Amino acid sequence: MNKNLQEWACSFSGCDGGNLGADIWLCGIEWGGASYGDYYEKTLPEELENGKVELSLTEFDWKDSLGYTYGRSFAKLFTSIQGGDVENYKEVSLLEGNELFKLNLYPIAFDSTDHELWHKNNISKLTGFENKYLFNTWCFFNRFPFFSELRKKHNPKLIIGTGVNYLRDFLMFFAGNEKVGRLCSGNLTPKSEANKTNRVFYWVKLDGGTLLVIIPFFSGRYGLNSNYLLQEMGQRIKLLLEMK
Predict the structure, then answer these.
(1) Is the pTM of this model over 0.70?
(2) Residue whose C-alpha is closest to residue 28's, from 99, 109, 86, 115
(3) What DSSP letter does each residue of 106-156 carry, written as one string?
(4) Strands of 211-215's sheet, edge to edge?
(5) Number of Cβ within a 10 Å radius of residue 58
(6) What is the longest distance spanned by two Cα atoms in the chain?
(7) What are phi and psi of 10, to 5 degrees?
(8) How many beta carbons lie within 10 A of that of residue 244, not counting itself?
(9) Pick from 120, 101, 112: which is nearest to 32 by CA?
(10) How many CB atoms lie within 10 A of CB 84?
(11) What is the pLDDT along the chain (244 residues), one digit of tens a residue?
(12) CA distance 157 to 223
């Protein structure tokens, strides 16, 4: 195993940053867009060489986030949670940036969650792990406790995780070995006649009162891929926050 991996992975590697004291945390699976530039040849090796990653941002950059599909979709969801109309999502660019903290379950960037990208980009040589499954399992026991303790310390009101197939990962990441409340699920039905498949989402109350909601990806055939679904999802989350 790379000698600096423990220090690097059990820090803010893979995080976009923002305000740790924010009421809302947004968590993805891992960074995307890794094929651009020299990420695997230069950036990632340099990060591993440097070890521990400190949190450099104190304010979330809404304007920069709107330049990406994921960021625009979340801006719409955020607007709906605040009681607004998703059509007005660009107004988030006027916010100060202390409303959000953004992070990811896993620290290495990939273009997709396809495990073959681990081999294609020779990540085994960089990390010492033969495949992504072994690395992710290692993260369960080494990286995840760092963030579960971080969550307990800052106790945000709401955490949104994107990717319902990673429900167990999100629970371990934010709850650790603590007891959790009853796991619940809900459904959203799209308006589109071309694809009426229900979108399933999950939620649970963590110790300290944090509401953890795991929602579908924003893109893809079965994602929250319309303004209607983002509006509905935001309204559901708002109602859950208001429940005693």
Answers:
(1) yes
(2) 109
(3) SSS--SSS-THHHHHTTHHHHHS-SSHHHHHHHHHHHTHHHHHHHHHHH--
(4) 17-18, 100-104, 24-28, 158-162, 211-215, 199-205, 184-188
(5) 12
(6) 53
(7) -95, 45
(8) 2
(9) 112
(10) 16
(11) 888 999 999 999 999 999 999 999 999 999 987 777 799 999 999 999 999 999 866 789 999 999 999 999 999 999 999 999 999 999 999 999 999 999 999 999 998 889 999 999 999 999 999 999 999 999 999 999 999 999 999 999 999 999 999 999 999 999 998 888 899 999 999 987 778 899 999 999 999 899 999 999 999 989 999 999 999 999 999 999 998 6
(12) 24
Residue appearing with tokens 């109602």: 239
Structure tokens at 14: 């893979």
What DSSP element (H or E) covers 78? Answer: helix 69-81
Q: How many CB atoms lie within 10 A of CB 30?
A: 18
Amino acid identity, position 219:
S
Structure tokens at 35: 């094929």
